[in-house]
Design brief:
Chain lengths: 239, 239
């Protein structure tokens, strides 16, 4: 048996060595990790406008530098407040908004990121939405064409939906594909795009659900309805 | 892998660096004493991360790294670790190695880090690691402990990858999805090697959704145990 003094000294030396090592290691990798996270998030945003990036360009095949380059040259970032008014300088940059944190704030204090992608004279408005699936959070980026009505593309992701069921919103490309060309207004009234169990009936504003993932699908519908609606006041000023 | 080339300077020339005993340490966990199929340890992560091969490989490499180096460091310190706090000391060693793995993954491959999410952190609670420290590293020399760690990590990794291969082929129709060498084997579009919409022989084929769920891994591991026991006489329970 070692004495208590020995134990205390041993543990102190061990933990401080480990602490210094880990802190140092984190400091070395920090910059690269942040850059990776940034690129990862930007890829997710560009995924919504994948069809308009150029012929046959796939977001996942783009090099890191190209992603950043597209963002620097072709994407305009706007930060909106909860009333849908753009926040001018002094506010946070749209790309720095953490939607997970925004969702926890009261609705009147939330900030909304808007990304305007320009290509070939056309503008695409990419909005970020976040909601709740079956097990945990789900989120996505939806691109609207310049009429601010037609969906140009959508991309979803999730934290912990069931693989093969709810997780299909991300894993199965045909799910997000369906949103293309759907419209969010019906004769001027806001209806969003609905995910319908058993298959879309109204081909203008509905997409097919996923069998076995009704709760996740309802979560997507709900997220889209509330999420896009938040941008409505701003879109009205553009029309 | 880089970690296999690390040599321990304490080994004297009289003992062969890689003799029969070392060979046994490395090979035994692959079959006769496999941590998953014989000791039934580390099941949680074996069920959770094996729906695709690529994350399984990353997980396997991470566990090999952690078991090997946790064994090495514990063995080096074994005569200085106070018995009263030995488990806490072992946990500190494991936890710091796992944190290093996590930081490295974030730096090198952010998407896979996102995909494995909590399961990298959960290597800390993987019974294989702690079990080897208690059963082997606390009583053996550093070099042998290191080999033992690699062996047990490999034994875990082999099963992980085997389960991953079966689950990915039958669940997704692909292999190594998400990695640069992705193979699309069977599916309903022409991107796959066997296009089920065109093929006469495989027109009936559809992906098995059960394979994507963790339950499939449970059945597969059970089947592996069955196969292994039916040919390996050493594992047959004589009592």
């Amino acid at each position: 048996m070692h004495s208590t003094k020995y134990v205390v000294i041993f543990v102190l030396i061990l933990t401080s060595t480990v602490a210094v090592l880990l802190a140092g290691f984190r400091e070395i990798t920090k910059e690269g990790a942040e850059r990776n996270e940034d690129i990862f998030n930007k890829r997710a945003i560009l995924l919504a406008v994948e069809d308009y990036l150029g012929d046959g360009v796939k977001v996942n095949n783009l090099a890191d530098g190209e992603v950043l380059n597209i963002f620097d040259t072709q994407v305009k970032q706007v930060t909106l407040n909860a009333q849908g008014q753009p926040i001018e300088d002094g506010g946070v940059k749209a790309e720095d908004i953490d939607m997970a944190k925004e969702k926890k704030k009261p609705e009147s204090e939330r900030k909304l990121p808007l990304f305007i992608y320009e290509s070939g004279g056309e503008k695409y408005y990419i909005v970020s939405v976040r909601g709740t699936g079956l097990w945990d959070e789900i989120w996505g980026n939806i691109a609207l064409k310049s009429d601010l009505n037609t969906v140009a593309g959508a991309a979803f992701d999730h934290k912990g939906e069931t693989p093969g069921l709810g997780a299909e919103i991300k894993d199965n490309p045909t799910f997000a594909e369906q949103f293309k060309g759907r419209t969010i207004y019906d004769n001027g009234a806001y209806v969003s795009v609905n995910v319908r169990k058993g298959g879309a009936v109204d081909k203008e504003h509905e997409v097919d659900g996923i069998s076995g993932a009704t709760v996740t699908a309802n979560g997507v519908s709900d997220m889209l309805y509330k999420g896009i609606k938040a941008y409505e006041p701003y879109f009205k000023t553009l029309k | 892998m880089a970690d296999t080339s690390v040599k321990d300077p304490q080994v004297k020339k009289a003992e062969p660096l890689f003799g029969k005993a070392e060979r046994k340490l490395l090979v035994d966990p692959l079959n006769d004493n496999n941590p998953i199929t014989v000791q039934v340890l580390g099941i949680c992560s074996a069920l959770a991360v094996t729906s695709l091969v690529y994350p399984s490989v990353v997980m396997a490499v991470s566990v090999i790294f952690v078991t090997a180096f946790a064994n090495l460091f514990t063995s080096i310190l074994r005569n200085y670790i106070p018995k009263q706090v030995r488990m806490i000391v072992q946990l500190v060693i494991i936890a710091s190695l796992v944190t290093m793995v996590e930081l490295t993954l974030r730096y090198l491959n952010y998407p896979i880090y996102k995909q494995l999410s909590v399961y990298i952190g959960l290597i800390i609670t993987n019974c294989i690691v702690m079990g080897r420290l208690e059963a082997f590293a606390m009583a053996n020399k550093p070099w042998r402990s290191f080999i033992d760690g690699i062996g047990n990590g490999l034994g875990y990794g082999v099963i992980l990858i085997m389960v991953g291969i079966v689950r990915e082929i039958f669940g997704k129709g692909s292999l190594f999805a998400g990695s640069p060498i992705e193979l699309k084997i069977i599916g309903a579009t022409d991107a796959y090697m066997i296009d089920t919409t065109q093929s006469v022989l495989f027109g009936w084929y559809a992906n098995n959704n059960l394979m994507v769920l963790p339950a499939a891994a449970m059945f597969l591991i059970g089947i592996f145990i069955w196969i292994q026991r039916s040919y390996n006489q050493k594992l047959v329970d004589v009592s």
